[in-house]
Amino acid sequence: MKRIGKRTLSFANPPRIFSYASVVGKKEHEGPLAAEFDLYTTDRFYGEETFEKAESKLQKTAMQTALKKARMTNEDVDHIFAGDLLNQCIGSSFGVREFGIPFIGLYGACSTMALSVGLACLFTDSGASRHAMAVTSSHFCSAERQYRFPLNYGCQRPPTSQWTVTGAGALIVGQGEIGACVPSVTFGEIQDLGIKDMNNMGAAMAPAAASTLLHFFEDTATGPEDYDLIFTGDLGSVGSQSLYILLDREGVDIRCRHSDCGLMIFDREKQDVHAGGSGCGCSAAVLCSYIMHRLEEKKLRNILFMSTGALMSPTSAFQGESIPGIAHLLQIKSD
């Protein structure tokens, strides 16, 4: 591994993606990507007693499915990198507790998928892990009642709001000769332009997405034209437009090469999701289904995947704090 520029890490022997799996809820399975997901549930409780336990089960199921697809057991994985949106990341800690694998808990809000995969790649590249797993999740009901309003309150949601995805994605990386690889990783820095509206997270996250993407282009001496597609996590319609404006100021245009997972997972004309999808499970589920399928089929050969997160909490919101944003980026190639 070597550092390129200020923030990008490049791997001499890029870690390979051995396996991946996605699990989603009913609304997500009714969207445009229905055929891409491994599993889905029509029960928002997923057979559990609470929404929080249901979210943990989403993670557990995604990890079990990824292991099964790779014909691996728990003993083949040395570390799990996981996080979610719930208080003290209980979705992850309860989701992975039965696996008997060293657990590294993370909080990157909705940027957690790129963050966890990036760190898993660092561990496998350094030799600290033979194989490492990255997993994250979100659940509409658990997130809504933690961050916004009681579910039975029935408040009207503004047009800028996004629908938290009920879903999880798990991905296993390691050293090998076969499979899509991760040549480089860029970890972002916090950006905060003073957005305080919890129902406008796209605007809060867009500055971080612009910052990380511009730093990656600068570090690698590349531009949008060098990549098949640039995927962002869950900026939605508002955040995507904000990202375009911020990049335009720097002379960078990604419009013809950009796709946002929050706009891909739902049909905004047929499904009432307002500005699109959000949540840790949004980019995780799309990466571990649609994106990886296209890389395996060689329909995509060189992409950028950037998860974006709003680093807020109920406490900071109640205290009138702004919403800091963060974005982490992976380059993924189908070689």
Task: Return Rg in Å.
Answer: 18 Å
Which bin fits the share of residues in helices? 25-40%
User: What is the level-2 CATH architecture name of the largest domain?
Assistant: 3-Layer(aba) Sandwich
User: What is the string of SSEs from the N terminus onward?
Assistant: EEEHEHEHEHEHEEEHEHEHEHEHE
Q: What is the CATH T-level topology of the largest domain?
A: Peroxisomal Thiolase, Chain A, domain 1
Question: Main beta sheet, described?
Answer: 7 strands, mixed
Would you count the extended β strands for me?
15
Average residue pLDDT: 95
The N- and C-terminal alpha carbons lie at a distance of: 18 Å
Give the name of the CATH superfamily of the largest domain.
Stage V sporulation protein AD
Query: How would you classify the helix and strand content by structural class?
Result: alpha/beta
Q: Unreliable runs, pLDDT <50, ≥5 residues?
A: none
**In one word, what is the shape?**
globular
Write down the CATH class of the largest domain. Alpha Beta
Strand content: 15-25%
Strand order of the largest sheet: 1-2-10-15-14-11-12
Q: Helix count, per DSSP?
A: 10
Count of discrete structural domains: 2
Give a description of the structure.
With 335 residues, the protein is of the alpha/beta class. It has 2 domains: 2-174, Stage V sporulation protein AD (Peroxisomal Thiolase, Chain A, domain 1); 181-333, Peroxisomal Thiolase, Chain A, domain 1 (3-Layer(aba) Sandwich). 34% of the residues lie in helices and 23% in strands. The chain has helices at 26-29, 51-70, 90-96, 112-126, 140-147, 201-220, 236-248, 261-264, 280-296, 314-318; strands at 2-4, 8-10, 16-24, 39-40, 79-83, 103-105, 131-138, 163-164, 167-174, 181-186, 229-232, 258-260, 277-278, 302-310, 325-333. A 7-stranded mixed sheet has the order 1-2-10-15-14-11-12, sandwiched between helices. Strands 4-3-9-7-5-6 form a 6-stranded mixed sheet, sandwiched between helices. Strand 1 (2-4) and strand 2 (8-10) form a beta hairpin. Helix 2 (51-70) packs across helix 3 (90-96). The longest helix is centred in the first third of the chain and has 20 residues, at 51-70.
